[in-house]
Amino acid sequence: MKNIIYIVFLFFALTSCINDDSQDANNLLPELSIEGSDSEEMPVYNIYFGTESLVIDPKVKATSKDLKYEWSVGEYNSTSGEKGALTKISTEPILNYSFEKKGTYYIHLTVTDDLVGDVMEYQVNVNDYFEKGILVVANSEDGKGNLGFIKDLTSEDIASGMEYKVEEHCLELMNPDIQMTKLIGADRTNASTSPFSQTPIMIVALENKCFFVNSTTFEIISSSEYSSVFSNFKATHFISNDGYASYPFVYDANSKHSIHFQKAYWYLYEYPYDFYQQSYEDVIPGYTYIASINSKTSVPVFVNYSDSEIITFQARSSDMRGTSGDLLKDEDILMIILDTSSSSNIYVTTRSKSDPTKVSQYTLTSAFDDEFYVKYQQTNLHSYNVSEGDPIPSQGTRATLAKNNQVAFYGIGGGLYAYYLFNASPQLPTKPIISYPNEEITCIGYNDANQDLYVGTYSSDTKRGNVYIYSVNDLTSDKFEPKYEFKQCTDKISDIRYKN
């Protein structure tokens, strides 16, 4: 956009002194122009709020070296072309500016040498970096949380040269004054930041407190200490859906208490049912992936390994519990796999207490008894014997189900195993499909929307985590290789999930 300023003091006095042999009077004026200023359209810059600043090098051509720059910014309506009031932000030759909020703006530049000048304007779109992508939950060796993010890149991002990467410490990046303790988990909810906004809330659960966060900017809206509900509470588990009212909660396996999050109004409370304040050794989340706000969910499963019992919350049961009772009393529970497409089925892999070579695969379904208590019943059972040295998952192993592909994934040490538990006679695999030398698998996630498998590993020698992303649809091909891999990219990973 071209608009040349001529500051010509005593112009006519000067021209009266020029004889007939001199050059034209205009040639006495110095040259000054900003690259692109002769265009009728503003150049457009796209940047991401909070993660990058706006840098503009105007590339000025001038005969004078004594130039003065003035940069200003104002809001801009790209539809109507309406421009807001300008605020001066810099007098440097190259602009480096960080915006305080997202939106559409225009930058106004004036360059002058006190005789002539030029004007240029630029459109700037400040977008949300954290709108869609993958959350990576990790902790350092000294117990400091590290929330990472792998952004979904748009075609414009790729064209501009951006590459997929794990952005570390995202919460501190957007909230520099916060103190991170051990990070237990994070997930977005279906509640909004206000009754007038569609921006969803994300909950970030630490060991001693939680943050209610704008899920697209990662700015903290509110925070609460668990001690406001129970003193000395330290979260050991984070469950983003309680399976009843879809409220997230944290559980402390040591104090035997849980605290629920009121996701719409950002406060903590003790749930009114005794079920959530009882002793459980482990809690298995009621989902195996978070693909979107409408992700499939089932109730979380509470486990007491010492009693070989699984328990779920059942609002219609006489005691609000569903339990396996004595059904598995002769077994050691190794692994629980939840079918999110059918919340009534729970798949349990066990090992006989009396015969360690005997492994069983149970399919359990809940049903009401005559007194209206919910009991889990065995609807399918397959038992077999394993050989000495066969890789058997340890008690409490987490498995992730890719139901569309009829396969569950779990890790043992540095090996990734694919378990086809829906076969007529399912048996645990004896060989891994992939091995990670000098690495230990610490978590596995799955995105049902695109059938991507997320594998998090840990290198003990470097004390750094690694992320591998696969397409489960490639599992039957000759080469099951990662689509993306991020080596030594974060701390020790405990959870990977998709957020939109």
Distance between the termini: 38 Å
Secondary-structure content class = mainly beta
Major β-sheet strand ordering: 21-22-23-24-28-27-26-25-29
Q: Beta-strand level of the residues, as a percent range?
A: over 45%
Radius of gyration: 30 Å
**E-strand count:** 38
Helix/strand layout:
Elements: E1 5-6, H1 11-16, E2 32-34, E3 44-49, E4 54-56, E5 60-62, E6 68-75, E7 87-90, E8 95-97, E9 103-112, E10 116-128, E11 133-139, E12 145-151, H2 155-159, H3 170-174, E13 183-192, E14 200-206, E15 209-214, E16 220-225, E17 237-239, E18 249-252, E19 257-262, E20 267-269, E21 282-284, E22 301-304, E23 309-313, E24 321-323, E25 331-338, E26 345-352, E27 358-368, E28 374-385, E29 397-398, E30 400-402, E31 407-412, E32 415-419, E33 434-435, E34 440-447, E35 452-459, E36 464-471, E37 484-490, E38 492-499
Parallel strand pairs: 3-10, 24-28, 25-29
Antiparallel strand pairs: 1-10, 2-5, 4-8, 6-7, 6-9, 9-10, 11-12, 11-38, 13-14, 14-15, 15-16, 17-18, 18-19, 19-20, 21-22, 22-23, 23-24, 25-26, 26-27, 27-28, 30-31, 31-32, 32-33, 34-35, 35-36, 36-37
Structure report:
It is a single chain. This protein is mostly beta strands and 500 residues long. The protein contains three helices and 38 strands. The strands form nine sheets. Strands 21-22-23-24-28-27-26-25-29 form a nine-stranded mixed sheet, with no helix packed on it. Strands 1, 3, 6, 7, 9 and 10 form a six-stranded mixed sheet that branches. The chain is elongated.
